[in-house]
């Protein structure tokens, strides 16, 4: 069993942060998005990984090699962003017809990994959504057999969105379908979607089963990134104790990195702060703060502040990238 994790996207919805940092390396709850995914799979016994890198891919490769020394992994580069189908097709030589678990690098969700890995039928993770038009959609029967999958349908016949988790047993047929698809015309948006190849496999009689996931977070935008951070902090709250700082109030759950200096401030709830950050005379809640930042006399709520940022003055909700200097006084 091999895990394929596509992390080649540019993360345009998380700019300005993704101008300097890959989306998969955005911090949350003391980790990165990528580390949350990899750690969960390592805990379930998956030992071999294929990372599809592209935009700022050298940073992802360096991070993986530094954080997981000795990890059995292969890096495949997608130079042109031509969609998820094209990205998975690039892994053909690395997969070598082994069964695979595909987990998109901006997706965090809870599911029974072991039952999915042991399944003799290929699996597609789904979750009910209010408006499925922005997602790949799975149409399923009463026994959760997948009848049809469609990418971003204008008139959806199902509200079950595909969450970006797939367990594929028939990888030879997957790559055969992708080969055919990539030699034909791309979809109207100019990309080759994995959904299309999966539908081809279904039409050829390959059986897929849909499994429902819990706490699905598509970490591709600010709001869901903050929501995921808050949820992960709550899950870790019983395992960690809140640190103490001079003349400051820490309201859990929080995660404060090593080397931080916090004075005369109120921090929390739902706040993650990176290493070696300084906070003075500030109030911060439901926010993510990068490493080596300096916050002086600010009030922040539902904000994301990049590493090496400097902010002085009063504010309410900010989305500030790395190496930024702002004086709101």
From TrEMBL:
InterPro entries with a match to the protein in the record: NTP_transferase_dom (IPR005835), Nucleotide-diphossugar_trans (IPR029044)
Membrane spanning stretches: none
Keywords: Transferase
Nucleotidyl transferase domain location: 2-234
Keyword Transferase among UniProt keywords: yes
Gene Ontology MF: a single term: transferase activity
Highest taxon above the source species: Bacteria
Name under which the protein is recorded: NTP transferase domain-containing protein
